[in-house]
Design goal:
The chain has 192 residues and is mainly alpha-helical. It contains 8 helices and 2 strands; from the N terminus they run H-E-H-H-H-H-E-H-H-H.
């Protein structure tokens, strides 16, 4: 103890008469493996770049997309990713290629992945760390939405009379819906 602490110690004891000092809580924090939030922000931008690459037909589109991609990297939960998803949708609808080309199924996956991750990572600071378990918690919901979305894309191809270019895709969609149905009924059984 230095001199100042020796002088202040009787004053501190006098102020604490009748009160017992509260010991600090015994807390142990154990974290699992994690990924940094800045890396997840790059992962958000990656599928958006890929989706623009699948539908962009001019340099002007790339210029607008570049501005929106910078905005998506800065604020993944902001307006830029949603505007970029809308732009990709408009470009896909106005594309001269077949409407149910295999890229449609890839675009559904990539845009959905970017928007989901953006909603998770957006409010976090750049230096934050996200445990893999947290990312894994959202996987069942993500996969359920993907199963429904991909099946709707297949139904759209079937309704227009244009079969998808990938003959194995309907089998995968049927398997995904079967797994989704099984998991939902298992949860319902548990809750009853």
């Amino acid at each position: 103890m230095n001199r100042l602490e020796l002088v202040l110690e009787p004053v501190r004891r006098l102020l604490l008469v009748g009160r017992r000092p509260v010991p600090p809580p015994r807390v142990e924090v154990a974290t699992g493996s994690y990924v940094s939030a800045w890396l997840l922000r790059l992962v958000v931008v990656g599928p958006l770049v890929g989706s623009v690459a699948l539908v962009a037909r001019s340099q002007g589109v790339w210029l607008v997309a570049l501005v929106l991609l910078v905005g998506a990297a800065a604020r993944p939960d902001g307006l830029a990713p949603s505007l970029l998803a809308g732009m990709v949708g408009v470009l896909l609808v106005t594309a001269p290629a077949a409407p149910f080309h295999p890229r449609v199924f890839a675009l559904v996956f990539m845009v959905h992945l970017a928007l989901e991750l953006g909603a998770l990572v957006g409010p976090l600071p750049f230096e934050a760390r996200v445990e893999w378990r947290v990312l894994g918690r959202g996987a069942p919901g993500f996969l359920a939405i993907q199963a429904v979305a991909q099946t709707l894309a297949l139904l759209g191809a079937w309704a227009t009379g244009q079969p998808p270019a990938m003959p194995w895709l309907p089998l995968m969609a049927a398997a995904a819906l079967a797994v989704l149905t099984w998991s939902v009924t298992a949860r319902l059984r548990e809750s009853l």
